[in-house]
Automatic annotation (TrEMBL):
Family to which the UniProt record says this protein belongs: Belongs to the PhoH family.
Domain PhoH-like protein: 107-310
Family annotation (Gene3D superfamilies): P-loop containing nucleotide triphosphate hydrolases (3.40.50.300)
Molecular-function annotations in GO: ATP binding
Pfam family, one: PhoH
Cellular component GO terms held in the UniProt record: cytosol
Keyword Phosphoprotein attached: no
Keywords: ATP-binding, Cytoplasm, Nucleotide-binding
Organism of this sequence: Treponema peruense
Cell compartments where the protein resides: Cytoplasm
Name recorded for this polypeptide: PhoH-like protein
Length: 317
């Protein structure tokens, strides 16, 4: 007896793009899954009783549908499908996504490391995300914070980072405090604006649901009922990190992101990120997720650049 697992695709244009000319795109999916995929009406079906196969099929079709539903999708349909298929599909990854009300699309992990980070942010109140540029740590922290806010799990988002000066003092930058801190926080706003319409982010800002402040302004506060992101945490001192960690209040989620290989502190000053992850790694309720160059999802050249620097460090040049 034939057992079909069926998914309904409401949008005919999306279904047509998934199938491709003469079902050429379906052939890619069939080759990947190792089973036949059938299109009939507005349905796609796979002939399999294997749970892992049907789960992977659901994950693939859901994700491709999301990609095709976004007007800004880049690349040909075939390239987009191939990119999805190239993502490591495992039970741990295919069960994980970040669904944000009003977002352009659901957010899926691109790698197992990113899936581990999403799961850690769901299960722990304090999460350290360590990794190189482009590994998704800041983007996923912003996505999870927005999910918590817009699903009414918290009442606000607080964004902070250490202001490490590079030839120009914060005090000499033009404007008020908010205008001075904005250039430092821009990467997080870039991430949020790629997840939600700019008008939505502006409205959240105008209603004081998203707050930004230099790390020094956290002293004396208790951060309750909020999602807190400390970005570029490798540039904190141990004293700053201790101060920040002890601000955590009831019903708060704290996401700390940073790259221990890009510390901009003066020589002989230890990074608070490196110090804290060493002494806090055995405390229940705290998760430390280390992403690597294999988790980099920017331009492929970025991954190669990071690997080249890692090779140099290992060889002691």
């Amino acid at each position: 007896m034939v057992s079909l697992y069926t998914i309904i695709i409401p949008q005919s244009e999306v279904l047509h793009r998934i199938c491709g000319t003469n079902d050429s795109n379906l052939s890619l999916i069939e080759n990947f899954l190792g089973v036949s995929v059938f299109a009939r009406g507005n349905e796609l079906s796979v002939n399999s009783e294997d749970k892992e196969t049907t789960e992977n099929f659901r994950f693939i079709i859901d994700r491709i549908s999301d990609e095709f539903s976004v007007n800004e999708s880049t690349g040909t349909d075939r390239e987009i499908i191939q990119s999805v298929l190239n993502t490591e599909v495992s039970g741990k990854i295919s069960d994980v996504s970040v669904s944000i009300p009003g977002a352009f699309k659901r957010i899926y992990p691109e790698t197992k490391g990113q899936a581990d980070l999403i799961l850690a942010m769901r299960s722990s109140d304090l999460v350290f995300a360590l990794g190189p540029a482009g590994s998704g740590k800041t983007y996923l922290a912003a996505a999870e914070a927005l999910r918590l806010l817009l699903c009414h799990k918290v009442s606000s988002i607080v964004i902070t980072r250490p202001v490490v000066e590079a030839g120009e003092s914060l005090g000499y930058l033009p404007g008020d405090l908010q205008e001075k801190i904005n250039p430092y926080i821009k990467p997080l706003y870039d991430a949020m604006n790629s997840i939600l319409p700019r008008e939505t982010i502006k409205k959240l800002n105008d209603n004081n649901l998203i707050e930004t402040a230099p790390l020094a302004y956290m002293r004396g506060r208790t951060l309750k009922n909020c999602a807190v992101i400390l970005d570029e945490a490798q540039n904190t001192t141990p004293e700053q990190m201790k101060m920040f960690l002890t601000r955590m209040g009831e019903n708060s989620k704290v996401f700390i992101t940073g790259d221990p290989t890009q510390v901009d502190l003066p020589p002989r000053i230890q990074s608070g990120l490196v110090h804290s992850t060493k002494i806090l790694n055995n405390i229940k309720g705290i998760s430390i997720v280390e992403l690597t160059s294999t988790d980099v999802v920017r331009n492929p050249l970025v991954k190669q650049i990071i690997q080249a620097y890692e090779n140099e460090e290992r060889q002691g040049f």
